[in-house]
Design goal:
Blueprint lengths: L7 H4 L5 H12 L5 H14 L12 H13 L1 H4 L7 E4 L1 H11 L6 H8 L10 E4 L6 E8 L1
Antiparallel strand pairs: 1-3, 2-3
């Protein structure tokens, strides 16, 4: 029988990582950051055979960003006419979070860690949007 479980590091609600870190810090008697929780969940996933060491999760804020993008709908946010890349305007993501009542990823932390993400494809640039037909300043990622 095939194992249908998903890795914990992928399915945990990223907006709750800080709360989990506070709770676990009490048990560990030392401070724990949100990324530490994500790293520990990834280690548990490796032990359960649900993940590998070669493919560690991105920083929790990047994971939260992609969860948010998927919840809003990539088709509504991806301005790229090229099917091999994704072009997203971060201001539009922020506005969509407000419109949909979603928690938005912490912006300054997100900017730092998006550049280190596995999907990052280079500096943000002007893209001729397939959505609006005009130029949009976007961050570019691999599909």
């Amino acid at each position: 029988m095939e194992d249908k479980r998903l890795p914990l590091a992928q399915v945990v609600d990223k907006s709750r990582l800080e709360r989990i870190a506070k709770i676990w810090s009490k048990y560990l008697n030392c401070p724990l950051a949100s990324q530490g929780v994500l790293d520990m969940l990834h280690l548990a996933d490796i032990e359960q055979g649900l993940a590998t060491k070669e493919n560690p999760p991105d920083h929790w804020v990047v994971e939260m960003f992609w969860d948010t993008v998927n919840e809003i709908g990539l088709d509504k946010l991806n301005h790229s006419p090229d099917s091999k890349m994704i072009a997203i305007n971060l201001r539009q993501v922020k506005e969509a979070c407000w419109a949909h009542g979603l928690a938005e990823p912490p912006y300054s932390t997100l900017l730092t860690h998006l550049k280190k993400s596995q999907r990052y494809a280079g500096p943000h640039r002007n893209i001729m949007s397939k959505i609006t037909g005009s130029k949009k300043r976007c961050w570019v990622f691999k599909t």
